[in-house]
């Protein structure tokens, strides 16, 4: 059974609270900067020659390429690479939405519906 986006928001925020990340209140600017820092980490991996789908796992200085190679698929191995950094972005967004009481699932559905009405390459941006 898969979880809804709002269930994941609740779970991510509860984990952040339980791990002490909200012991002191953060400004909204700091929350956004933390989301941005995860995007920067993904870009840095790319600049270091990693492919967007490349993943590896580390623990105690050891590196393993495939999670399936980890005996018992031990979750204490740290996932690394661009997919992991993209996951961190989403987790930080979920945490922020949990903190501020944002119904992210509704916001996503609204925004996707609106985006579907926009013209091809709207906004005139080159990149």
Please characterize this protein's 3D structure:
With 127 residues, the protein is mostly helical. Helices cover 52% and strands 8% of the residues. The chain has one domain. The protein has helices at residues 5-18, 28-47, 82-100, 104-116; strands spanning 56-59, 62-64, 78-80. A 3-stranded antiparallel sheet has the order 2-1-3. The longest helix has 20 residues, at 28-47. The N and C termini lie far apart (38 Å). The mean pLDDT is 92.
What distinguishing features does this structure have?
127 residues; mainly alpha; three-stranded antiparallel β-sheet; globular; Nucleotide pyrophosphohydrolase
Distance linking N and C termini: 38 Å
Low-confidence stretches: none
Strand order of the largest sheet: 2-1-3
Helical segment count: 4
Overall number of domains: 1
Biggest beta sheet summary? 3 strands, antiparallel
Bin the helical content. 40-55%
Order of helices and strands: HHEEEHH
- Net shape: globular
Structural class: mainly alpha
Q: How much β-strand is present in the residues?
A: 5-15%
Rg, Cα atoms, Å: 17 Å
Average per-residue pLDDT, rounded, comes to 92
Beta-strand segment tally: 3
Protein name: Nucleotide pyrophosphohydrolase
């Amino acid at each position: 059974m898969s979880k809804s986006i709002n269930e994941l928001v609740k779970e991510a925020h509860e984990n952040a609270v339980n791990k002490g990340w909200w012991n002191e209140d953060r400004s909204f600017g700091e929350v956004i900067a933390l989301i941005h820092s995860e995007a920067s980490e993904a870009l840095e991996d790319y600049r270091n020659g990693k492919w967007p789908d490349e993943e590896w796992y580390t623990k105690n200085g050891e590196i393993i390429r495939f999670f399936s190679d980890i005996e018992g698929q031990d979750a204490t191995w740290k996932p690394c690479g661009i997919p992991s950094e993209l996951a961190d972005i989403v987790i930080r967004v979920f945490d922020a939405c949990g903190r501020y009481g944002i119904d992210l699932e509704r916001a996503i559905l609204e925004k996707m519906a609106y985006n579907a009405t926009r013209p091809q390459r709207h906004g005139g941006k080159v990149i």
